[in-house]
Task: structure prediction
Amino acid sequence: MSLAVPPRDPDVTPRRLLVLAIPAILVGAVSALILWGLEQLASLLENVLWGTLPDALGVDPWGWWIILVLTLTGLAVGLGLRFLPGHGGPDSATTELVSEPLRLKALPGLALVTILALAGGVSLGPENPIIAINTALIVAVLARLIPKMSPRISMLLAASATIGALFGTPVAAALVFTGIVAAVREGGSLWDKLFLPVAAAGAGAISMHLLGAPPFAFDVPSAGTPDPLEIGLGIVVAVAATVAALAALAAFPVIYRMLHALRSPIVIPVVGGFVLGILGLIGMAARTAVVAGTATAVSGSVQRHQQEKAQEQYDQQQYEAQQQQAQMQAAAQQAAAQQQAAAPAAAGGTDLVAELQKLAALKEQGILSDDEFAAAKARLLG
Result:
C-alpha cells in the first residue's frame, strides 16, 4: 500500500468544490422531494387497496385478499409495461444502480408503474426506479442551467442524493459510491471525488427528515451477561440465515429465466404477483401461528408464575402462624413453670395458663393487637 499523496486534479480546487456544493445541495433537496411525492401517492393508493376497499367489502385484508390484490397489481403493472411510453424503463434486474439517464418521455410511465407496484406490494423497494427518475430529471435540468457540468457528475449527484433520501443518511451513499468513484480514471483524491455526492446525499437525508420521514436510527438492547446457550443459538441463526440467502441468490436467476420464458410483459408480472400473493398468504398464516403459539406460551407461563406466587404466599402465612403458635405455647409453658416454682397462691388466685390461653385466643381472633397481647401477658407474668 502506497502512502504517497495522489496527484490533484487541477480542475478540482476547494473553491470549485464549494461553488458546486450549492447545486449539489439543491439536487439533494429536489431528489428528496420527488421521492417523498411518489411515496405519498403510493401510500394513498395503498390505504385504499388494503384498508378502504376490504373494509367496505367486509373481507379480511390478510386472507385471500392478498392474492387478489397482488395478482391484479401485477396485471396493472404489466399493462403499464406494455402500453405506456418507455415501457417502464429498463429491467432493474439487469441494469446497474447508476446507469445512463432515460428519455424524459419515459418518466411518467415509469412513475405510474412504480406507484402501482409500491401500493400493491409487488415491489420490495423503489430504489432503482426512483434513482432512474431522479437521474433523468437532474441531468436534463443541470444540462440547461449549468452546461459546463459533466453529465457523469450530474448522474452521481442524483443517484447519491436519492440513496441518501431513501435511507435517511449520507453514510449509505458514501458506502455505495466509494467503489464507483474510486474506479474513475481521473486525478484527484478519493475525498475530492466523494465530496459532492456525499453533500447531495446529506441534503437528501435532511430534506426527507424535514418532510416528516424518520431518521435512520434504531435501538439495540443491552445483551447483558453472555450466555453460552444464547451465543450458540445466535451462531446457528446466523449460519441458517446465510445459507437461506445464498440459496435465494442461487435460485433468483433460475426463477428469472422461468418467468421471462413466458415472453409476455403482461403475463410475467401477473404470474409474479400471484406467486407473491401465495407466499404472502403463507407468511401471514405462519406469523399468525407463531403469534398464537407465543401468546399461549406466555399465558401459560404467566399463569404458572401466578400460581407459584400464590403458593409461596400461602406457605409464608402458614409458617408465620406456626411460629406464632409456638411462641404462645412457649410463653404458656414458661408461665406454668414459674407458677409451680413459686409459693402457693392465695385462694381465688388466677390460673396463669388458662389466662394466657385466653389472651392467645383473643389475639388469634383479632380482638387484641400484638402490643395489647404483649402488655396483658406482661401483667399476668408479673
